[in-house]
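Students often ask what a holo structure prediction actually looks like on paper. The answer is less mysterious than it sounds. You provide the chain, you provide the ligand, and the output is a string of discrete structure tokens encoding the 3D arrangement of the protein together with nicotinamide-adenine-dinucleotide.
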Amino acid sequence: MTIKEKLIPDKKVCILGLGYVGLTLAVTLCEIGYEVFGVEINEKNLRKLKQGKAHFLETGLDGRLSSVVKSKKLKLFKNIHQKFGVSVYIVTVGTPINQYDQVNSLMMKNVCEEISRFLKKGDLIILRSTVEVGTTEKMKNEVFDKSHKDYEIAFCPERTIEGKAMIELRNLPQIVGSNDPKTTNRVSQFFSLMTPTVVRVSSLETAELIKLIDNCQRDVNFALSNEIAEISDKLGVSAFEVINSGKLGYSRTNLPIPGPVGGPCLEKDSYILDSCLGKENYSPKIIMSSRLINKNQPKKSIKTLKHFCEQYFTSERIHITLAGMAFKGDPETNDLRGTMASPIIKEVLRNFKNCTINLFDPIVTEKELKDHFKNLKFEYSDSIKKAFSQCSLFIICNNHPLFANIPITSLSEIMKKPGVIFDYWNNFSNQQINFPEKIKYVGLGELGKAIKEIK
Ligand SMILES: NC(=O)c1ccc[n+]([C@@H]2O[C@H](COP(=O)([O-])OP(=O)(O)OC[C@H]3O[C@@H](n4cnc5c(N)ncnc54)[C@H](O)[C@@H]3O)[C@@H](O)[C@H]2O)c1
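The corresponding structure tokens follow.
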């Protein structure tokens, strides 16, 4: 039975904001059989989308996007039109944080006002962007109710990760939050064609909080490992060994290895939660001190690295390669939003006053790097070999699988000597590698041990 034959009231959908979240959802809904009207305000990106091409890298998206655009299952516009005749609006605009770590909800407000002008009796609005708890109710009271239309509203967070969204959209449980059981049923039916599991929760606020807690929980876990890295540096032991040996056959310890924590979602959700709790005169202590640990990690680790490097480098100019610029490497992406490479570079420049910077990323292009790191003077390496040959200090910033699989011994041979490889992801910490003379490899949480060994 096709979707058209199923007794589903909502077959025509408008998705507003065709970024990572909106576009992957739009293509997925088209493939299920929904008729999707995509609205994207950025004209440059819209033009690209109309050619069937995504304006960002997402595994499995390109061919499928081109197919649904060609077959006109996905129709693309800059604004909403009455002629769409949709009964469902899904909001997927960005909710970034500003330099003061406050969430910018302006795009959300604007798009809700736009929807409000087109609302018809019985329409359903689903907010999907990550928001402060209470935002859906606020949009209801301050925007949609003013339309005096009889509409329904729900909050259904996106919980996929970039790079796996096209798979996870069809597998992950979908949280459905509404204050009205009738709406919960309607939305559950809508999403039940997309994913096998729909989790109904009892209020809008519950669904909003679940999304924030998902990411806060990950932030806290990583912070604990990053704190263990700091502790290990102070005590002169390897954090990698402490964590891995400690959890071997001992399931009650379940820690990730330490590493930089960044990106467009993970870091901001703690701030969003903190901000909305401000109204209750409460700040989540574990969550916010974890955030601070993760935020300050580049400052502390690069300072310790400088201390370690002082044993090797004299005062002459140091050539430094930073490798892995995207906010994460696995699943791979070219997304530079919120990348920890930015604060790492800042700390490198602060600590190594007389240095040249060389950047390498397996995915991100030179142009994308130049657009992102606008005021940074840097050289670009288009191959890992060149990246090694250019430097005496090689810093692995993200967890792209390429770094775990490089021929590290032969690449370190072509580095300038003396040379140091500092690896934020401990790719080679558990391998007994004989590095060439005058080359030192050290992972995050192993600097203190390495400094102790020199003395
Ligand atoms: N990226 C992820 O994997 C992910 C995962 C879970 C949740 N989220 C959350 O989902 C939301 C969207 O994230 P994203 O990464 O897709 O953001 P994004 O910035 O990639 O995409 C948002 C899009 O909305 C467009 N837009 C803004 N105002 C508009 C308007 N009035 N009309 C039409 N289009 C408009 C922008 O031009 C942009 O293309 C955020 O709240 C984010 O925190 C993202």
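The pocket of nicotinamide-adenine-dinucleotide is lined by residues 16-22, 39-42, 45, 92-95, 107, 110-111, 114, 129-130, 158, 160, 162, 264-265 (CB under 6 Å).
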